[in-house]
Amino acid sequence: MTEQHIIIAIDGPAAAGKGTLSRRLASRYGLRHLDTGLTYRATAKALLDRGLPLDDEDTAADVARNLDLSGLDRSVLAQHGVGEAASTVAVMPKVRRALVDAQRAFAASPPGAVLDGRDIGTVVCPDARVKFYVTASPEVRARRRYEEIVSQGGSAELSAILADLEKRDARDAGRTDSPLRPAADAHLLDTSEMGIEAAFEAACVLVDAALRN
Ligand code: CDP
């Protein structure tokens, strides 16, 4: 990798603000962006669409190996059921291995990339130049997800969203393979009382400092 090759790793639980922050950072620093959650979602959706079981590791890993990263689109992968199914297949080591290989290949291509997910700083890109762990209280995250759904014309119940987020956090943090946790050298960004603009500005100060070193 050249001096200019920059990888920024962004991890954190559901609805913490990783997506917006990642896109803004990618645009500011001229990097490509990969939302790795979409790779798990796309694997799950392909299984669901083909009527294949969600609990067969070899079948799911086969699907994961054949995934085309260039066609990932959150709008078609956004459904609640797909997110649930994604966190189910995400506990399978063979699925993770296939997707992590593809994610690393994406990160290795110049000029570098911003990757967001659950295990970027710990497993996928442990040598990333800058790492962030973005979090917010469960109540704030549930409120954000609720507003997102309502603004898109959907309907939802706040208490159900909160219960669901907490269940998914527990599954992501409790799994044996690549559990959700901050890397030792990650900068913590708690966005509970911080708007996205403030989080972005705080992140830029830290990226700029890392790039100067
Ligand atoms: O957008 P949301 O936060 O709901 O989730 P996502 O980022 O789309 O990821 C969906 C699921 O994929 C997560 O709940 C994780 O179980 C899994 N995932 C993972 O295990 N590792 C990653 N690097 C990214 C997502």
Report on this model:
- There is one protein chain.
- By secondary structure, the chain is of the alpha/beta class.
- The chain folds into two domains: about 1-15 and about 115-205, P-loop containing nucleotide triphosphate hydrolases (Rossmann fold, 3-Layer(aba) Sandwich), CATH 3.40.50.300; about 30-110, no CATH class.
- It has helices at about 20-30, 35-50, 55-65, 75, 80-90, 95-110, 120-125, 140-150, 160-175, 195-210, and strands spanning about 5-10, 30-35, 110-115, 130-135, 185-190.
- Strands 2-3-1-4-5 form a five-stranded parallel beta sheet, sandwiched between helices.
- Helix 2 (about 35-50) crosses helix 3 and helix 8 (about 140-150) crosses helix 9 (about 160-175).
- The longest helix is centred in the C-terminal third of the chain and has 17 residues, at about 160-175.
- The radius of gyration is 17 Å and the shape is globular.
- The mean pLDDT is about 95.
- Bound molecules: cytidine-5'-diphosphate.
- Cytidine-5'-diphosphate (CDP) binds next to helix 2, helix 5 and helix 9.
> What is the string of helix and strand elements?
EHEHHHHHEHEHHEH
Q: How many β strands by DSSP?
A: 5
The average pLDDT score comes to 94
- Domains (count): 2
Q: Count the helices. How many?
A: 10
Shape: globular
Q: Give the cofactors and ligands.
A: cytidine-5'-diphosphate
CATH architecture descriptor of the largest domain:
3-Layer(aba) Sandwich
What is the rounded distance between the termini?
Answer: 17 Å
CATH superfamily of the largest domain: P-loop containing nucleotide triphosphate hydrolases
Low-confidence stretches: none
CATH topology of the largest domain: Rossmann fold
What top-tier CATH class of the largest domain fits best?
A: Alpha Beta
Approximate strand percentage:
5-15%
Rg result: 17 Å
Helix content: 40-55%
